[in-house]
């Protein structure tokens, strides 16, 4: 499939106020195919001037109430239409995602595109269910009047959404769908590494009937377009997914005008295998927890903590899987593990593993990049690691897991929580008592038992500690796109 055939948007355009426009500065950024390293198209390099136009459009749409005043049932129907159009164009969206990010196309369809569809379908239902409460008051200076007191949940206003490159269209939907369901308008800046599927989603939104200005897309660099969006005085909330480092910079910038901000950040999630686990399930389960999406997932099970009696068996099993996974380009239907997203990411992963090995770790599988074109890295399992090594503490964001034995049951909580992250964790066991005790003790926003990375639009998702602020998905997301107002009416006695 050639890009010009599949994708009618002229390269290098931004979506502002319902129109596909050139960036004010007229500049573009190259887009690379991670499987070959070749530059195959360009995107617009949006800057502060474009962000300003986009925020103005979003604000005008919000204030005109074209979207907010629409009947909730109709808003929901438009979001449902978006879901149907995503379903209709699933193949094309998956193809774009695979081309741009490198992931296997079948996976892009089964995960990224399915998540995008689910988000619109799920939040379409919320458009009609955003309600307040009534209160029976006990006023302090009681003159006997009656009161009618109630709360209103109102859209926060213009939302600035910023997304990373690992699940581009899914993450765009994760932010746009709840924002639109609550009546907010949006300016979205996708990652400069993977903007294509988000631009295609922009076309789908227009086709579904989302009014002009309700969703605007400004592609560009984080330090330019992203920072301008965070700093814009008319943006009321920032919804960010990305690295902890960038998240902290964004939180600091939001302090200036106390913008609302939610952050979905990095992780170093433990996958914990207890001695009683069914290893036939646990071994492929923990291997998939780290190698899925080439390890480029915030909840990757990147620390494998294994009770000593089964340590060797689990390590050998995961190493065997790592050695067998078929590495290749995303468009090859036999590929199980695609390239990393960029040359920069390949350099980061290679450097961290090399440092881990130089400081004492042993590679039981992988441990190096694949020679030749593209950004491929071998699935890797490291043993003989210490808790103070950077491979154990820092997020690698590649197909690399560190395995550590657990000798004492009382050690589990301490080792699992020995990280400044707190996003996910999985526990592999059939012991009901230990399951619930350990699930309570782990500092993580999601704890999976005998599974990993099971996500659902209805289940809250987010991080403890430095993995983030707030939750996405579910009614929790609805809260973060709304302000709560109390209205108190005194009804004096006639
Ligand atoms: P990143 O932080 O480098 O970039 C994310 C986005 O922020 C990009 O769109 C980028 O252009 C923008 N950006 C960068 N600097 C900015 C600034 N100063 N102001 C405003 N915007 C800026 O992250 P990445 O490398 O694209 O993604 C990988 C990271 O994302 C990993 O750490 C991963 O764990 C995290 N992540 C978290 C979740 C989650 O839900 N918790 C999900 C996916 C990825």
Question: What can you see in these coordinates?
Answer:
There is one protein chain. By secondary structure, the protein is an alpha/beta fold. 39% of the residues lie in helices and 20% in strands. The strands form 5 sheets. A 7-stranded mixed sheet has the order 14-15-16-13-12-17-18, sandwiched between helices. The chain has a 6-stranded mixed sheet with strand order 9-8-7-10-11-19, with helices on both faces. The protein has a 3-stranded antiparallel sheet with strand order 5-6-20. Helix 7 (196-208) links the parallel strand 8 (185-189) and strand 9. Helix 4 crosses helix 5 (105-126) and helix 4 (90-101) packs antiparallel against helix 7 (196-208). The radius of gyration is 24 Å and the shape is globular. The mean pLDDT is 96. The chain binds nicotinamide-adenine-dinucleotide. The site of nicotinamide-adenine-dinucleotide has 29 residues, from helix 8 and helix 9.
Short structural description:
The chain has 494 residues and is of the alpha/beta class. The chain is built from 16 helices and 20 strands. Helix 3 (72-88) runs antiparallel to helix 5 (105-126).
Which keywords apply here?
494 residues, alpha/beta, 20% strand, binds nicotinamide-adenine-dinucleotide
Rg computed from alpha carbons, rounded to a whole number of angstroms: 24 Å
Strands in their spatial order, largest beta sheet: 14-15-16-13-12-17-18
User: What is the total tally of β strands?
Assistant: 20
Unreliable stretches covering 5 or more consecutive residues: none
Quaternary structure of the protein: single chain
Cofactors and ligands present? nicotinamide-adenine-dinucleotide
Mean pLDDT: 96
Counted by DSSP, the helix tally is: 16
Structural shape: globular
Structural class computed from helices and strand pairing: alpha/beta
Q: What fraction of the residues are assigned to beta strands by DSSP?
A: 15-25%
The helix content, as a percent range, equals: 25-40%
Largest sheet: 7 strands, mixed
């Amino acid at each position: 499939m050639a890009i010009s055939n599949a994708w009618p948007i002229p390269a290098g355009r931004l979506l502002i106020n319902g129109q596909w426009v050139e960036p004010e500065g007229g500049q573009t950024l190259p887009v690379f195919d991670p499987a070959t390293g070749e530059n195959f198209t360009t995107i617009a390099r949006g800057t502060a001037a474009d962000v300003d136009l986009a925020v103005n459009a979003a604000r005008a749409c919000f204030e005109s109430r074209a979207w907010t005043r629409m009947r909730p049932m109709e808003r929901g129907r438009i979001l449902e239409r978006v879901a149907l159009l995503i379903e209709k164009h699933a193949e094309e969206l998956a193809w774009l995602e695979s081309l741009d990010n490198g992931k296997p196309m079948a996976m892009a369809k089964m995960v990224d595109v399915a998540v995008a569809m689910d988000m619109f379908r799920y939040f379409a239902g919320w458009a009609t269910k955003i309600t307040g409460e009534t209160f029976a008051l006990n006023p302090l200076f009681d003159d006997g009047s009656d009161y009618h007191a109630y709360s209103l949940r109102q859209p926060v206003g213009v939302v600035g959404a910023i997304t990373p490159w690992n699940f581009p269209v899914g993450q765009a939907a994760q932010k746009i769908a709840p924002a639109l369901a609550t009546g907010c308008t949006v300016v979205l800046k996708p990652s400069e590494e993977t903007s294509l599927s988000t631009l295609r989603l922009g076309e789908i939104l227009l086709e579904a009937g989302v009014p002009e200005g309700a969703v605007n897309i400004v592609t560009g660099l984080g330090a330019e377009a992203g920072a301008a969006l965070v700093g814009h005085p008319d943006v009321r909330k920032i919804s960010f997914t990305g690295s902890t480092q960038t998240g902290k910079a964004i939180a600091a910038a939001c302090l200036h005008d106390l913008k609302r901000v939610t952050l979905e950040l990095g992780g170093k999630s433990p996958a914990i295998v207890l001695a009683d686990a069914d290893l036939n399930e646990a071994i492929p389960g923990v291997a998939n927890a780290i190698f899925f999406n080439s390890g480029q997932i915030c909840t990757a099970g990147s620390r494998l903590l294994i009770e000593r009696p089964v340590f060797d068996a689990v390590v050998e099993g995961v190493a065997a899987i790592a050695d067998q996974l078929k590495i290749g380009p995303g468009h090859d239907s036999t590929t199980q593990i695609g390239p990393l997203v960029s040359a920069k990411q390949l350099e980061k992963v290679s450097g961290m593993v090399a440092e881990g090995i130089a400081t004492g770790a042993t590679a039981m599988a992988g441990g190096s990049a694949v020679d030749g074109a593209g950004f491929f890295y071998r699935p890797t399992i490291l043993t003989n690691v210490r808790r103070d090594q950077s491979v154990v503490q820092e997020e690698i964001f590649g197909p690399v897991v560190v395995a550590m034995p657990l000798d004492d049951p009382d050690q589990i909580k301490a080792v699992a929580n020995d990280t400044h992250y707190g996003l996910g964790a999985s526990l592999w066991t059939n012991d009901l008592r230990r399951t619930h005790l350990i699930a309570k003790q782990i500092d993580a926003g999601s704890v999976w038992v005998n599974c990993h990375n099971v996500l659902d639009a209805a289940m809250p998702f987010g991080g403890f500690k430095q993995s983030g602020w707030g939750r996405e998905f579910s009614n929790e997301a609805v809260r973060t796109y709304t302000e709560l107002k109390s209205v108190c009416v005194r009804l004096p006695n006639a």
